[in-house]
Structure formats: C-alpha cells, structure tokens
Amino acid sequence: MEVFEKLVIERDRHVGMVTIRQSAETNVLDSSLTAELSSAFLTLNQDAAVRAVILKAEGESFLAGADLKEISGLSVSQAYGFAEKAKALQDLIIHSGKPYIAVVNGYCLGSGLELILTCDFRISGPDALYGMPEINLGLIPGGGGITRLQMMVGKAHATDLIYTGKLLEPEEALSIGLVRKVSDRPLEDALLIAESLANKSSLAFAVAKQLFSRPEADDSTLINQEMRAFSMMFDYPDSLEGIGAFLEQRQPVFKERREMST
What we know:
Blueprint: E1 7-12, E2 15-20, H1 31-46, E3 52-57, E4 61-63, H2 68-71, H3 76-94, E5 100-104, E6 107-109, H4 111-117, E7 121-124, E8 129-131, H5 145-153, H6 155-164, E9 167-168, H7 170-175, E10 181-182, H8 186-198, H9 202-212, H10 219-232, H11 237-247
Parallel strand pairs: 2-3, 3-5, 4-6, 5-7, 6-8, 7-10
Antiparallel strand pairs: 1-2, 8-9
C-alpha cells in the first residue's frame, strides 16, 4: 500500500476511508495534499473490493481552504494551473462509480467546501463551519464552487454565501440542503450509509450516479469560465492585497474598482 505523508488510507471490509492528517497548522489544501488525495482516490476507485469511500480529517478542521502562502503572487497561468489541479481532484470523485461520503468537522471553507460539494453525501459534525470566503481575499471560488453551490442550494443561498463570505453553522447548512445530516457521531453515521450502499448493486449505483452527474446547461463550460475568471484575479492587485492582509493578520485595503474582461 502506498505510504502518504498527509493522509492515511484504511479499508474496513468494503469501505475505504481517507483521513487527512492533522497538520501543524489548520488543515489547508496545498499542492502536496492535492497530489496525495488524487493518488488515494485513484487507488480506491480502482480497488474492486472497495464499494464506498469516506473522506474525513483529523484535528479541529476539515479543510480551511487553499494554502494562501502557496498561491500568493501566482501569475494568471499559474493560477489557472492551480484551478485545473483542483478540478482534476474533484473529477476523481464525480466520475467515480462509487459513493463518496464526506465527514466534516471544524472549518470547511473555500476549496475544502468545493471538494465536498462533489461528494455524494455530506455528514456534518456539530462544530463544523461552512463558507466561501474568497471575496474577503479579493478572489472568487476557483474550482467550480459558484456553479455547484448554485445547483445544490439555489441562487439565493449561493449568492449570499459567495457575495458576503459569511460562514454557516451546521443547522443552517442543513436547512439549505448543503449537508445531509448533522450528527454528534458523524463518522458512525457515515459508516452506516457506506455499509448500506456497499450492499447495493454497484452497477446500478454507478449508472445512477452517472445520470445525476450529467451537466445541465453545460456546467463544464460554466466551471471552465469560473477557472479562467479565478486565474485572471491574480493579474489584479486586490488578490495580492487580500491574501497579504490575511497572512499579515490585518484588514485588507482594496483599491478602487478596475474592470476585468472574462
């Protein structure tokens, strides 16, 4: 079995479990974790004995977004490459014929929220917080978050989250359909779902999932437009100021508005 630095793969009968290890700081989705998650998902997707996958994290957060130190100062082309890698990771879940279940604790923000939007089930712990705070950094979601969030919770809730950068507590996330259940024992509940699905016809589930994943109004095009718009933000000073202010623990001072062609 492949050895990872930032995650662990376990197998319990027909259920595969990917656990993001607690980092020295709050868990963030950097390039090395993206690569490891991609390898883990590919491994489990190809394992015929695994019929359901659970994704969870150690510590006090699930994923608090991208690593801002890593993306600060990216060029437009580098930012688009970052978005492409995020999309490729998500595609391993979307195009898998197996159910993916996210168990969420603590912060689930930005690219972390984008990742769980691609899972088939989302089980929330009572301490979870959900949000798309990119606007506070002079950015927008870069991995399909606008498109998928609107599809899942509707335009009104999606615009509220993305325009304001607000955080949702578990019960509000449940009320708008962002998560399936709020539980004091989210992992146990996820295992019950996984074991139930593992006993279903894997072919029937895969076909049903494929049909649910069909694009409406050409979502692939919409997400590609998001990726291009996200990467273009790195050609403007607001993103540099927003990320810099966050890393320096101060309030950002954004300059007057500049138009951008997407």
